[in-house]
Design brief:
The chain has five helices and five strands, in the order βαβαβαβαβα. The model has no long low-confidence stretch (mean pLDDT 90). Strands 2-1-3-4-5 form a five-stranded parallel β-sheet, with helices on both faces. It is an alpha/beta fold and 124 residues long.
């Protein structure tokens, strides 16, 4: 069940970022978007997201860098992260760095929604 804390969607590809955001909004979730790693860190500070859906491969700070920076900054308050990956190796690495799930692109909408339902932090 959606709550007031947003889901942060981070992807340098605006088409994919908007598509993921649209899917989540259609399920009643509030969404905040970021197109870069630096913008993702700023949004995480400002909005304290319940979950981060994060592209692994981005120019500049990649998804791994974003997740590790969030963990260093927020410690145990780091939101769960679903990393969107392009390869099996990135999917393995997602687990190694503490993402709750690595989803290989292209992914099924049902997989994404199941991950959100399972891992999203509640306001409680």
């Amino acid at each position: 069940m959606p709550n007031d804390k947003p889901i942060l969607v981070v992807d340098d590809d605006p088409t994919l970022r908007r598509a993921v955001s649209r899917i989540l909004r259609s399920e009643g979730h509030t969404v905040v978007e970021a197109g870069t790693g630096d913008d993702a860190l700023k949004a995480a500070r400002e909005f304290s997201p319940a979950l981060v859906v994060l592209d692994y491969a981005m120019p500049g700070m990649d998804g791994e860098g974003v997740l590790l920076a969030m963990r260093a900054e927020h410690k145990e308050a780091t939101p769960p992260a679903v990393l969107l990956t392009a390869s099996g190796r990135q999917q393995e690495r997602a687990a190694e760095i503490g993402a709750v799930l690595g989803l290989c692109k292209p992914f099924r909408v049902e997989e994404l929604l199941a991950a959100v339902k399972r891992h999203r932090r509640s306001d409680a």
